Request: fold
Amino acid sequence: MIDELRPAVYTKCNSVTGLSGGLWWVEASQAATDNYSVFSIVTNTNTRDTATKFEKVFLQINIYSLNPSTLETLTKGMLAKLDDTESSWSLTSYHFIRIERNFVRGPYKPNELYQTVIQYEIDLQKK
Reply:
């Protein structure tokens, strides 16, 4: 995984209005009960060239809420923070080429919380 991408995603997404339960990396704290989000980043093992100058990563964001209308508001806020934001990312070791939303799925209610899943594909080029 590109180490500097994780804090950049956290900084950008943590400011979503209404995310009172916090933004968590991979797994939420048991203390998080409502209006929280969990994100993870997966690096694509297939590179576009043999020098690995280009990197493709997938960002998955899961948003949770007890209230479906609050979940919708949080989802819209997260999409606003990430859609078409290529020029607003500042990474030290990579040029941020593209961020493209692959899908938004939900809301689901697998248990007591409603959930929405968002996935983005991010293309980077090593400087």
